Structure to design on (150 residues):
């Protein structure tokens, strides 16, 4: 592996994602947080008082069929979350402003600028919780994969 990001990507590829009912034996507070449809960034800002977003990848893949965006969220020099967003070309055509997000958190674009609804599945892989969210943004798809580092 080239870096820690490759490790997180490998976790996403091998993880088996499940709905909330699958996690009946886990800590209810952790599961409630993982299946909470609100913005994770807002939760981190509330908990840590600050949030840093490092843009890792921001480019087209798969012959320009999918736009890939990867970020690392951290606070107080502690990595908290690695996130990978996949946006189909059809969604980008409808919402070209997505290409200009830069270091703006995805949650601001999804929840404050658009009427997004979300379905969530969670996995536990190599000691990490992962979350897969499928968003419907005014009838268009956005997929988000997150690895909770802390």
């Amino acid at each position: 592996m080239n870096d820690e990001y490759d490790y997180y990507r490998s976790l996403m590829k091998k993880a088996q994602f499940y709905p909330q009912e699958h996690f009946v034996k886990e800590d209810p507070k952790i599961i409630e947080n993982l299946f909470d449809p609100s913005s994770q960034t807002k939760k981190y800002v509330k908990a840590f008082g600050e949030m840093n977003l490092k843009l890792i990848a921001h480019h087209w893949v798969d012959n320009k069929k999918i736009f890939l965006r990867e970020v690392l969220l951290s606070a107080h020099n502690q990595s908290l979350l690695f996130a990978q967003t996949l946006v189909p070309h059809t969604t980008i055509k409808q919402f070209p402003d997505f290409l200009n997000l830069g270091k703006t958190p995805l949650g601001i674009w999804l929840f404050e600028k658009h009427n997004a609804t979300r379905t969530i599945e969670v996995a536990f892989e190599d000691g990490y919780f992962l979350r897969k969210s499928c968003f419907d943004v005014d009838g268009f798809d956005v997929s988000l994969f997150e690895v909770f580092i802390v």
Observations:
- The chain is about 25% helix and 40% strand.
